[in-house]
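Troubleshooting log. The previous structure file for this entry was overwritten by mistake, so regenerating from the original sequence record. Sequence copied from the archived sheet and checked twice against the printout by T.R.
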Amino acid sequence: IPALVFLYREDIDKLYGLADIVISRGGAGMLFELQFFQKKSIVIPFDFGDRNTQHQINGAYEMAKENPHLFIVQRQQNFQDGARELDTNLNRLL
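Regenerated output below.
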């Protein structure tokens, strides 16, 4: 899968236009940008098992509930068993 991985870009609007699917963390700003640009997304919220990261988990699930055609939430710990769930989710969005 051709991919571009980055932390920050000034030209994010152009990249959203080019992307078929976005894989991202679950920060509120990012979730609202993905919704604004109507980008199909797999959201992997930070989850360290403490109250400091609960907002990303809650926000991601709320956004997926409101926009099931755009968002799939995949929990970070699910990658311990390999990439099978990620592959399944990519295929669902494509």
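The first helix runs from residue 12 to 18. Archived copy saved in two places this time.
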